[in-house]
């Protein structure tokens, strides 16, 4: 116990790490565990050094590190305090690709970034925390939860499916009932289950390139081959898809993000939509439509999904995410599919995961039903609209010579193309060393050698001061050739 | 609106069902939706009959049915009320196997059972609801949650892995750190990931027969072949496993439930354990050890897992379940494995599911860390001990002529063998028609024709009056040949 503050800090040295890092880690753990609360004073550096029998400079270094990361705030002549407004920070080590992260996290290198342009996630700080927690508490005493013996419907809670059916009918022009929907662990599981249900091992699925690498991983985990099709100014190049079809008899499905193409954010044009549906119908190609951030449309009206337009002869699996509406740490997605596909998806889901978390599904169903989630979406859309415009303004102000972009009509990221052949891989590596994580075009390509020189800059989970800082870090770390 | 009570009951006739069932269904729906709350008075039978224009006997029959099921309570001269203490009841249609359930649930047949001998799940009514809800609420404002961008560690939250490492080191004799653990969606996902990491498609895994069919589904979903090995009085027959090994070069793994064999509850004997480990070492066979209800040991001390004994040359993936400690509707499991296997499991997990639900994982970590879960386990063990003894007494009293069993030293089910060749499939079908769900031996076998005539009778999620009612229903429905 350190005198002069309420804090008790126990230093456990992490092998192979400098002592100040071990101390910083101990302090962040105490904050995460709630032992140190926002606004709490930290012990003076001299007092803590004495008690822990370490050099005062070491305590200083730990406090400095955490102040830089935003965990602590130093106030002149008053001392050091736990920040009241804890920042968007990686608390686990992060690097690309994510699958490689555990080992890296274990060895403690690279250090976590100070700021991160996400791939386009919402801001968990905006979540209606109290309402969600209350709904969760209530659902722990519903008869459905109390009667659950772990063999509930692998399609997910009836309450959530019914609420989703209502929501999607109203918002996406899909005429649905709860029997047409499977609730999944984020859209990731929906993609895996859809591919497992549609494709036999060795069959192929066409994907947009650049595109969404985690979808490719889901499809490969389901035993499918993944074939890239180029993306133009209006989304997937349907002519090129037709050419691939002509030479690939094993091609049985196509994966598209027509509303806001991932990563470039363009919307698939109306003519392309019709051509794609017609091509799919003619060749018996299943369409997996990933409508991952439909809610976030800032200009004009959202475009109706392919699933709402496709003729009855076309098999569309429509995939969506509630994580984009709530927070990325809450893993809820869903898929809408025809009965046979849905049944196969449910059987596979049961084999790998049995069923979802009933209390969470029921809680989110309640928020959807009583309009809380709709109110939240409207508020979030307003805020993200402001953040989008702020990022666009900052990029124009600081990086107009290096980056070109169109302000996207929707979605939670700006696709910024590097001018004059700037190497965005080198740039992102330099940014990473300075503490800014940013994804270059190569992160979204099957064939990195043909990757566009660009960045996907997710803006929604950063507030305006954070966006300004991130743009400045990006500017500071641009390659010398570009200066 | 029915006068004299706050209840509004709308009767929607279910085609093909007697009117009293439609009415009973409407009332349970109103209770589930919260329109009728625990303790609320129901309308008088005469008044309700008049308003709904049905016969008073029909209302009587519906009330009677729901009183038998425990939804309603009749109080002499005061009337009928919604029960204050709602029972363990299936609120969704249920039948075996679960994968077939959605369609059945949709058509509304068969009607939900009134009571169910589960396969051995805990009682969600005992869960420390308030503590879990509070911990969940807190974890929605931790920096880890607020900073999550959906690309956290696929191994699971550091907080939960650290808490589990401490718990398993103390309770299971496993010397672990958080880096040796992956947190999964229930043990089901752990089994799927383990098989995916260990086996190449077409390779085989030996399983106990009778055994755990959902594990077989997980292994098959991972592309593996499943080969049954008989189980004797001391668990898996290791000699028979050796014989299978001799003729099956593709056999690369074995799945065992050594602590309480599923479904028969026997503990794998010490000699068999040593032989199994030695056989695995000699043939380079990986062991998947499913220690699904370790905590529930009523007599003697829990036996240490194989994973705590295996020499360093043997690859053991140790799988456990937090759902057995919490509630089956909360899907948290984990696996402990060597670094290479763990890395492959994490990569596959990321492909199919990305990561777990951070708020839930952090909440459970807090309960584990502050001892709440340990206290809950001790309390639950005491209660389940009583329920086990009560079921044993009731079986002896009512079904001694039909069923033989050993009182299990641990686990949440009694394995009751039918005497004199009674057909347990026919018996369970008759029980099902009367509203009791019970699983016959054939439900646990690859080869149903060789299935033991037995029942697995899970007792933990039924209280003592419910156990008594279930045993009476089982007695009432025994085949005529057995009377």
Based on the model shown, name its key terms.
homodimer, 483 residues, alpha/beta, eight-stranded mixed sheet, four-stranded antiparallel sheet, 17 helices, 16 strands, globular
SSE blueprint:
The structure is a homodimer of 483-residue chains.
Chain A: H1 19-32, H2 45-52, H3 56-69, E1 72-75, E2 79-82, H4 101-107, E3 115-116, H5 129-139, H6 143-147, H7 158-172, E4 181-184, H8 186-198, E5 204-209, H9 213-221, E6 225-232, E7 235-236, H10 238-247, E8 251-256, H11 270-283, E9 286-290, H12 306-309, E10 316-321, E11 333-336, H13 339-353, H14 358-369, H15 372-399, E12 403-404, E13 413-418, H16 424-433, E14 436-437, E15 439-440, E16 454-458, H17 464-476
Parallel strand pairs in A: 3-14, 5-6, 5-8, 8-9, 9-10
Antiparallel strand pairs in A: 1-2, 4-11, 6-7, 10-11, 12-13, 13-16, 15-16
Helix pairs in contact in A: 1-3, 2-3, 5-14, 7-14, 8-9, 8-13, 15-17
